[in-house]
What does this fold into?
Amino acid sequence: MRRSIVGKISSSRQDRISPTSGSKAEITSLLCLEAAAKMQHWSVAFEGHAFGCGGAGRVQAPKVHSAQVLIFHKDAMREVMKEDVQEAFKKALAGFEKRLQAELQRLREREEFETEWIRVKTDVLVPALEEVRTLLSTAGWQCEVRADRDQGLHFTIYRGNGKGERPFMTLQPDKTKDTIAIHTATRGSSSEVGRFTLDQLSHDFIQTEASKFFERLASEYSTSVARDFSSR
It folds into this structure.
């Protein structure tokens, strides 16, 4: 929509007006108005007709009794974005911001989880499994407690030279959830013990799970040793 201020000028002369005539002064005032308006970024239009100079510096009057003068701001000529289109952009921007904040929150929570996992692994789990290793080593079993590069924890129990794949229990952070998955594997079987939150991974908890793992492993070893002995 064009906002405008409309003014009217009149002229009773339809021939050439000399520089000293009143009509020329009226026209000159309008030209001054146009110049002043342009300085403020407004435009002036002499609707339907234009004023100009004739030969020898003479000013030619419009061939009508009156002409409209329109004054409007240049920005008013621009097309305005439709309201529904604006709302569509606003909705898309709001959705983007919401998803971004949710993702940033998820990353912050994941970082906190990984930091706490390192603390639990270092201060709780490794010392607890080291106690198990010390206990079993007195009975002729070999144990290794190792922190993996992928943030996991690896606990191995074997007897003798440990040729072949050694039985193990691992604790591994889930990639999509803030839980720790525990797996065990012996020569006879492998399985997932379960997935646990960090506050469940206490000193007593991990030693209990290690004892269950060792019980199954010891049973397999005794069966294997008995079979080898009987085959002699």
